[in-house]
Write a structure and sequence with these properties.
Two copies of one chain form a homodimer.
Chain A (H helix, E strand, L loop, with lengths): L1 H28 L6 H7 L4 H7 L3 H18 L11 H18 L1 H12 L4 H27 L9 H22 L11 H14 L10
Helix pairs in contact in A: 1-2, 1-4, 1-6, 4-6, 4-7, 5-7, 5-8, 5-9, 6-7, 7-8, 8-9
Chain A binds a DNA duplex (18 and 18 nucleotides) through helix 1 and helix 3.
Chain lengths: ~210, ~210
DNA sequence: GTCTATATAATGATAGAC
DNA sequence: GTCTATCATTATATAGAC
């Protein structure tokens, strides 16, 4: 029994280093800009050894994606059915969502890059599954809030959910650029940003009494 | 006098084809995934001819970016100082912004890809200039709305502007993915989407009387 | 499982004829 | 301005020893 586990562990040490190196490079530069030589160099091994563990560059990429997807999926389970008002639950979900994004930038960039790029058929399937999962939870949460008369009934729950996801993911994508823009800077603190977003989403930017058409 | 103009026109016919082919490929696949051979093939010319017009692949890329940036910058000038309430002007700007994005998907994808990717130093400068320009206008518009007491004074104008841009750009990025997600679909019509977004941004999702903290 | 050495194809870029 | 032919380099991937 133990021999099998030992083999698995010994075997993974090599694979693990390769997977980690590949994740870093793929996330930062994208599939095409990364060579097997660069991965081998960063993983401190040789090119043929990578081909011993993975059939092709694309296979390695898919393996990296699957590991990242598994990690990403498990992270938001805690927010599935929490107590409190839906306003609070939605705020918590959004804060947790953004926190996960910023705590796992590599994973996020990897999945986001693949999901939004016209890349490899099957890679997008994995990425779609991940974003679809957290998105569906958000939509359901908004709908429940509508059923409880806490949220307006005349808004599209998918739209509200999308705006939350968009605000968080686009913040992650754009913050390196935004930091260098003159004149108007966003809050660099994630919590401040998230609270500001949710305040606008919940209450709107119009002053009270201006008439909600 | 005319000879110069004629030369210019004759000269551009070749360059134009190369630039257009390069824009299509760079926008769809990114810098690294596009080869000079592929560009030459699509432009119906030869590789050395490209090198006659541009010093390197990177030079060609910058030229494509500059053309795209010029196009993109000119598009939103009309919304600079329009009449009407700031709510209306903001809605019009957002609608025009999204319309421009969807009418020039190639240009948008090209600039967005470069701005958000860890790509070539100088390419990002161009992209940053474009997004920074339209972003600054939006922020100013929100601030004016606050000065006129039309918008709440306690919101961050940069944050509100960012949410509009994020909603539009992320919609553009994600709509190919979102269309295939089960359960919750966004409106496929740009106007419907934009109106829904602005409704939420202006009025919020909470039902009236729930107390704006 | 890991390596050296290598096959094969494609890359960015150039030389030089027309 | 445009081409054919070619350079040097690098890419993915494999063969085969240990």
């Amino acid at each position: 029994m133990q021999t099998k586990t030992d083999n698995k562990n010994r075997q993974q040490s090599g694979e693990q280093a390769i997977l980690e190196a590949a994740e870093i490079l793929f996330a930062n530069k994208g599939f095409d800009a990364v060579s097997m030589s660069a991965i081998a160099r960063l993983a401190d091994t040789s090119k043929p050894n990578i081909y011993h563990h993975f059939n092709s560059k694309h296979d390695l990429y898919l393996a990296v994606m699957q590991v990242a997807a598994r990690r990403s999926s498990a992270l938001l389970d805690a927010f599935a059915d929490a107590p409190g008002t839906f306003k609070q639950r939605l705020s918590d979900f959004s804060a947790g969502h953004l926190e996960n994004i910023l705590d796992h930038k590599l994973t996020t960039q990897l999945i986001l890059r693949d999901a939004l790029s016209g890349g490899s058929e099957r890679g997008r399937e994995i990425a779609k599954h991940v974003v679809g999962e957290s998105f569906a939870r958000l939509v359901a949460m908004v709908q429940q809030g509508q059923n409880d008369k806490e949220f307006r009934a005349d808004i599209d729950p998918a739209l509200a959910a999308f705006m939350i996801v968009a605000a968080n993911l686009f913040f992650f994508q754009a913050s390196p650029v935004m930091q260098h823009l003159p004149g108007a800077r966003l809050p660099d603190d994630a919590n401040t940003y998230c609270n500001g977003v949710m305040d606008i989403l919940f209450n709107g930017v119009l002053r009270d009494g201006d008439g909600k058409s």
